[in-house]
Specification:
By secondary structure, this protein is an alpha/beta fold. It contains ten helices and 26 strands. The chain has helices spanning 3-26, 83-91, 109-113, 130-141, 167-173, 279-291, 322-336, 366-372, 417-428, 460-463, and strands at residues 66-70, 95-99, 118-122, 145-149, 156-158, 161-163, 178-180, 185-186, 197-200, 202-203, 215-218, 223-225, 229-233, 239-240, 250-254, 260-263, 310-314, 342-344, 352-357, 374-376, 382-385, 389-392, 396-402, 409-414, 436-438, 441-445.
């Protein structure tokens, strides 16, 4: 073999691994198949379900009602997200306030709940204080409405994954037998164009579900109900993202008292999702539920114990002296601040009543003495009140609240005229924190004592 042939053989051996590598990584030319195109003629875009019925105009039947929406606990929502809900409340005559403690408003939740009809909570991310939980428990026990919303689209991302918006809500809901699962529900068989947009057709009978035939929830969490009722359920194909199990999971529940509702979504409130199926009707129902509680007046909520114009009347030998009228004027100013007029009347009439009196037999007061178990002797030094025992008449004032269907009556009692003036002044401040309150009876230290029939005489303790 000649030198030239050796060179060609060496060059070929040199190129052989290069060509092999090139063929290995790039491949040899292959015939390309004709791509399969979708059948555009048969393709249709899923359309959201349409409402089953037209909406009726809202009636202004809750004039003066107030709803508190919480923004004090790092809530993961925007006010625009719930604008349609707040509009529905306003259309029914209710005022919407936002609970947020700041330098401009340091009032605690208990003070704000005195006049509220409902408290609404969306996706909190900070803990409620013990005083707030206690205030809400008292609020619900008095007939106030509590609505708690979660939403799978509102989770907060952290270093260890998603932190759901259910943790602090569940601490608040636990006493009522309700809780949210930290999941999202999905349905592969029946949905609104996405497996997380679930169609719901199973409803329990309640004002919250009135008139609903189908709603669509977007990114909903399931609701566990241990005491109460499941209001909205999915079908057998509804599953939980936590374990791909489920079937007929609940996404809204109501506690056994009927005053606490847990709803696993609120994205359905935002446009354009509010137009799907009967979502707009559900928003209206939520507003009706929030305003539909029957909250009983309690003395701890003073001065928000009146719901109608107030007539002031005197009982027995009680007279409206200059000092008494000055004190009444201060109380009138306080009630005017909560949009309630106070007028002096010759006798009880329509509206609510404020009765001024003493511990003496009176045709007007005796029914209240019987109702609250008040017993005394004319000229005696003590009065006995059921549940409170024997109390000195000197220097003490007593407040009795009797709620009624047609009127609420607040009775202020003291043994001496100057003590009655002091008791009215105490009420005028709108704060009974210095009184011992037991149910709807209040015992307030107001003065040194005496009697209506003579000059006030200080007791030994007061003189000391």
């Amino acid at each position: 073999m000649t030198l030239k042939n050796h060179l060609w053989v060496g060059f070929g051996l040199f190129l052989l691994p290069i060509l092999f590598q090139a063929a290995h990584y790039t491949g040899l030319p292959q015939p390309r198949p004709t791509p399969q195109l979708p059948q555009y003629a048969n393709f249709s875009i899923p359309e959201a379900p349409t409402p089953s019925a037209s909406l009726a105009p809202a009636e202004v039947n809750h004039s003066g009602a107030r709803v508190l929406i919480d923004i004090n606990h790092q809530n993961s929502f925007q006010l625009l997200d719930v604008e349609l809900f707040t509009r529905a409340l306003a259309a029914r005559g209710a005022a919407v306030e936002y609970y947020f403690v700041s330098d401009l408003d340091l009032r605690p939740l208990a003070e704000r709940l005195k006049y509220a009809d409902a408290f609404v909570l969306f996706s909190p991310y900070s803990l409620f204080e013990a005083s707030e939980i206690s205030a809400l428990r008292d609020f619900v026990s008095q007939g106030g409405r509590l609505l708690v919303f979660a939403d799978a689209y509102r989770g907060m991302q952290g270093y260890n994954g998603e932190f759901p918006d259910t943790v602090f809500s569940n601490l608040l809901l636990a006493p009522y037998g309700l809780s949210f699962a930290g999941n999202y529900v999905y349905n592969l068989a029946e949905n609104d164009g996405n497996f997380r947009n679930v169609k719901l057709n199973s409803f329990a009978e309640n004002v919250l579900t009135d008139g609903l035939k189908q709603v669509v929830f977007y990114g909903a969490r399931s609701v566990n109900v241990t005491r109460g009722a499941a209001l909205i359920r999915g079908d057998a194909n509804l599953r939980s993202s936590l374990n791909d199990q489920g079937g007929e999971l609940a996404v809204a529940g109501l506690d056994s008292s009927g005053n606490v509702a847990a709803i696993g979504s609120y994205t359905f409130m935002t446009p354009p999702f509010d137009q799907a199926a009967d979502n707009a009707r559900l928003i209206q129902n939520l507003a009706e539920f929030a305003l539909g509680g029957e909250r009983l007046p309690t003395l701890t909520n003073f001065p928000f114990v009146f719901t109608r114009p107030v007539s002031l009347v005197t009982a027995g030998n009680t007279q409206l002296t200059t000092e008494t009228l000055t004190a009444v004027a201060g109380l009138q100013q306080t009630l005017r601040g909560i949009n309630l007029p106070l007028s002096v009347a010759a006798d009880t009439g329509s509206g609510d009543w404020l009765i001024l009196g003493s511990f003496s037999d009176s045709e007007l007061l005796n029914p209240y003495f019987d109702q609250f178990g008040v017993k005394f002797e004319e000229g005696g030094e003590t009065v006995t009140i059921a549940g409170l025992g024997e109390i000195s008449r000197a220097g003490n004032g007593v407040i009795l609240l009797l709620p009624g269907l047609n009127h609420n009556a607040l009775v202020l009692l003291a043994d001496a005229p100057e003590d009655l003036v002091a008791l009215i002044n105490l009420a005028a401040y709108g704060d009974l924190s210095g009184c011992v309150i037991q149910e709807n009876i209040g015992l307030c230290p107001v003065g040194s004592g005496g009697s209506f029939g003579g000059e006030a005489t200080p007791t030994d303790g007061a003189a000391g």
